[in-house]
Amino acid sequence: MNTQLTLALRYLRGHKTRTILTTLSIVLGVMLLFGMNGMLPAIKESFSQGVKTSISLDELTVTRLANGIFGQEQVALVRNVPGVVAATGSLSRKVILPTDMAPQDQRGQLITNLTLTGLDLDSFGEINPLSLLAGRSLQPGDRAVALINQSLAENSGLGIGDHLTLPTADGVTRLEIVGIVAGFGALSGGEPLYLPLDLAQQVLNLPAQINVIEAMVAPGEDMAIVGQRVLESLGSGYQLGAVETGSEIQAVLELGDFIFSMFGIVALVMSGFIIFITFRTVVMERRRDVGMLRALGASRRTVTGIFLFESLLQGVIGTFLGLIAGYLFISWMLAVLEPMWRERLGLSLGGAQFSLGIFILSITLGVGISVLAGLYPAVVAGRMTPMDALRPAISVERKGSTRRRAIWGVVMIAASILCLLSRNVGLASLGVILFIAGLMVLLPLLVRPVTRLIGGLLTLAFAREGNIAQGNLVRQPERAAITASVIAISLAVVLGVTGLLTTLTYGVFSYMDKSLGADFLFIPSSFALGSGNVAAGPGLISAIRQVPGVEAATTLRSSFARFGETDVMVIGVDPQTYPQVSGLEFSRGDEQLAYQAMAQGNVVLANGMLATQGKLELGDDIELLTPAGMRTYTLQGIGNDYMNSKIMTLYVSQDLLAKDFFETGDVLLMLNLADNADPVAVRADLDRLEAEYPGFTLYAAQEWKDRMVQDARTRMSITYLLVAVLALPSLIGLANTLGINVLERTREIGILRAVGATRRQVQRIIMAESLLLAAIGIAFGILAGLWLGYVMTASMALVGYDLAYFFPWSGILLAVAVGLLIAVLAALHPARQASKLQIITALQYE
After folding, report:
1. Residue 307 and residue 243: Cα distance in Å, rounded?
2. Residue 344: helix, strand or coil by DSSP?
3. Residue 663: CA atoms inside 13 Å, Cβ hemisphere, count?
4. What is the pLDDT at residue 20?
5. CA angle at residue 613 from 609 to 614, to 5 degrees?
6. What pLDDT does residue 388 have?
């Protein structure tokens, strides 16, 4: 084993460029797989912090499922439960402060996230008394006063007697800080702020509502038994423990987790191709070395072990460097996304988080694929007899093998076409795999005709050098096919993802044009409607409708419900005014009839994600757990809007939202101008209203759309960066192949130089060969990429995005440009290396 390891290390050190390029392919694959799976936990943690309610868990705590609110009268029921000696109710919600109201921390960053908790001043001290550090506690009769946490006081410099301004349903309220309580660190994604309960209900526009009951259990009583009695007294829909929502976005995060994992796995698979190409060619290059080892007594196992050690070493080194690169890459990405995340959602992303499982998966795949890719070439090397290894290699083409290859390739491609015609996403996905596999099987047979076809065009630019390059590829069709297949797969991914992004861009922007088609928008602090926004009372929409020149205005309201085991967003709309100003992009159901039915009864609309994952059809009865209890609604339409297309959402009338969900506050307001209105005068009146309600920001609709388009482009640029990283393995594979070809044809290059070929002509031969390989890869990559993009777009229907496929003309141009760039870059070093060969040295090379 020591001999095998020594020889493997010696060979890797002796071929530094090839070793670095091959190892780099593993680094890239592990970087994507490991790094992207460190990003998703940070996003999940960010959301979970934003939806956990800051409450004590020392005593018995009762909350409503789906982050629901309920009446204060429920506290009396809990007090009467045997075993309970005291109970209190509170209202706790996350609130995002507008930037002009937010205090700064010691680093100059705004503290925008607060967890507002309204306390029943008559009873909270019996259950969970706050540990006061300075000032006084809240007292019955207090109004505009608050207690802040020790960490907020230390971070912001706020103290006793200072004031803090909050947005409210009626505009703003100014609070005097009267006390500081013990506690370090922001809980639940926001610094705790304690108010009198009635003031918190006024701020949040939830009169007589609470969402937490805390109870003290009598000494000697079993907590579990008393908890069960409490739940029985309250009825269905309640739970013991803290409020924690967010399952409505869990499906989106899991989908992202899957996509990011696939990015990494695809990159690692392509890395395996590169290692396979390299080692398969290296075996042929080192035939004489293998022959000498076998002649000196080395066993087959020894020879196989040398090659396996080489692949193992490259896998270990590449995986180790990939883990480091993945951490650095994702840390950089999170830093780039942090400002946008904080501004749009009021949440902090934090740092990358890696589970033990992703460490194990990344190391297993990184090292395992490297070893597997080198296994077959290693076995081939071990099977060589000394005579076979020392004898010159002769390429023999077997007609029977060629015929079988052609049949299998045609069968797989035909099957892939049938899968696509089935219009079944699962079969279409299988069709992509069959199509790519079929191309790879047929590529060695197609190298000669395709090379001649493309080579005819190439000779216009490279003349004699192009003919020589064609001959080189035709002599090694297997090697050319494998290299071209790596390029094809890379470009297929580039083109497929580009097609998907193009489709999503146009599709989501069509949602924006419909659902945000108003002239002016009052947008809340957080872009996510149910995430920390303080709703406006009826005064704001009433004032908007009275502005001269406003023709129509409408609002959105939000709440949550429980559908089965999943929390879903519930959006309340006015069926009369909502279609006049905005509307859903319907995929099923009649738009006009759906709004009419919504105005008349217990009717809901669903977005595509909920309809697909909940397997809902028009006319289905849907049972929801609401703050008012279990309710049954009829589904009358399926459609999407821009604001809520990424989470599972239901749409109900605002009357129904008030009756079953107790929500009457407006979280988004939209308006249209009359045809003869003066936009400047209307904007001036609306600006005055914005000043009175600082929890909202006024935008002209086009201004807001432009901002969203810019944000989308920023997010897409990151995705394009990932796509570019996926294209790098093809660059490495092509450079490896060309470098090996130069070594293998050292004597041939020496002969060309001896008969008069210039260094420049040798360089042009290598460049022509690179361009031919890239052209083959581009041609088949475009075919596979268009298919992949179509299937990926169709797969979006599985999560509720029923989008028409946009043909990615720009993606085709990008694929061609990337392929040609790869060809040029990959050929630079091998061409330079070939041109520098000395004639005598080259002719003496064995």
Report:
1. 57
2. helix
3. 30
4. 77
5. 110
6. 63
